[in-house]
Amino acid sequence: MSQREILTNGSAFKRTDGRWCGVVWYKDEHGERKRKSFSGTTKAEVNKKMKKYIVEFNEDKNDSVESLKTLEDSLQNWLQVFKFPAVERTTYDRAESIAKNQIYPQLGKKVVGDITAADIKKLLNYWMTEDYAYTTVKKVYTLLNEYFRYLYQQEIITKNPMANVEMLKKANFMSAQGKENLPPTETITVFSEEEIEKFKAEAFSVFGNGKRKYQQAAAYILMLNTGLRTGEALGLLNTDIDLDNRVMHVQRGVKEVSKREGVTEKSGREVIVGKLKSATSKRDIPLNDTAIEMIKDLRKEFYFGEDSPLIPDEHGEVTRPVNFRKRFYRILTAAGIETKGLHSLRHTFATRLINGVKDKNGNIKSLTPKQVADLLGHTTSEITELYYVKRDTNMLNGITDGFEL
């Protein structure tokens, strides 16, 4: 693709019928020489029209320069100028990671104005055949859709290539990968009763000298009994906990993000303490006996004062999420438990409360989805039921006895 440019400043001439005409020659985006004609009753009128056209042409030319950049240069600039100031740091890190790892390797060197719907569809299909998760490929689609929509709305490109690209439906996507499209509730990972006992046994195990193998093991059991997110647990201060009234106040979160100088990514990562995921995330969580026991255990292990983190590192600072996760995975491996994410503790908490527990008389004690949503800090109970609860139909055995029709 060539760059459009004015070839002449325009020349006015008078026709035999007394009218004035003018011509401006220019080169279009395909490199072809073309002309724009003008007419008027006076020479001044024609010159004014030509001058206005040249000014507008050059303004359009400046806008179209963006379409001549490579996708990597243009998309990275768009991310830094428009995305970075508008989203959370973790959200921006994910968007930039998607661009660098899933988009640039395939399309990064291609000129923006030359990218077609077929190019984008080929990109999406490539990652699908590489067995990437549906959510990852959809993030690629969403990011490109937002970027190209901006270019089209700003008239930087004359046609939006995303207009003819639809994200494959999840069922078809999974089928193409030879996988079953399970409902969200079936893909939720939770700890079984046996796994919880195995996890606890390993987490609190000790060496021959009596020293514990794992730091802050009680933190994971605390999460299991409160439904805390990892960032929320690491953001707790001792002052957030009221043992007398058996409640904890969730007020902040810890996140690990890429180090940056301005918007430019630098080597390494850093921990930031800031606001919670959403407005409803700021909440009070009641503490059961086990949760209280775990809080006391954590304070016995490390305590640097009321204003210090409940789960500190050895220097009394905030524990890095990456270290907290690695320790969790080590416990799982040593206990012989199938790998699960830290979020599985939160899923298990929600599942247990909604499915309920049976007493010795066969009665089921449970909470409503709305109550559990409030404990988890969810905006709606639909989120809780769809993405956090693995239904246990075994709990329903015998429940219809006496309801014969």
Write up what this structure looks like.
The protein is 45% helix and 14% strand. The relative contact order is 0.08. The protein folds into 3 domains: 5-68, Double Stranded RNA Binding Domain (2-Layer Sandwich), CATH 3.30.160; 71-181, DNA polymerase, domain 1 (Orthogonal Bundle); 193-350, hpI Integrase, Chain A, CATH 1.10.443.10. Helix 3 crosses helix 4 (117-129). It is α+β, with helices and mostly antiparallel strands. The mean pLDDT is 91.
Class based on secondary structure composition and strand pairing: alpha+beta
How would the global form be characterised?
A: elongated
Describe the main β-sheet briefly: 4 strands, antiparallel
Fraction of helical residues: 40-55%
Number of domain modules: 3
Mean pLDDT: 91
Query: Which CATH class of the largest domain is shown?
Result: Mainly Alpha
Q: What is the CATH topology assignment of the largest domain?
A: hpI Integrase, Chain A
Ends distance? 76 Å
The low-pLDDT segments are none
- Strand portion, in percent? 5-15%
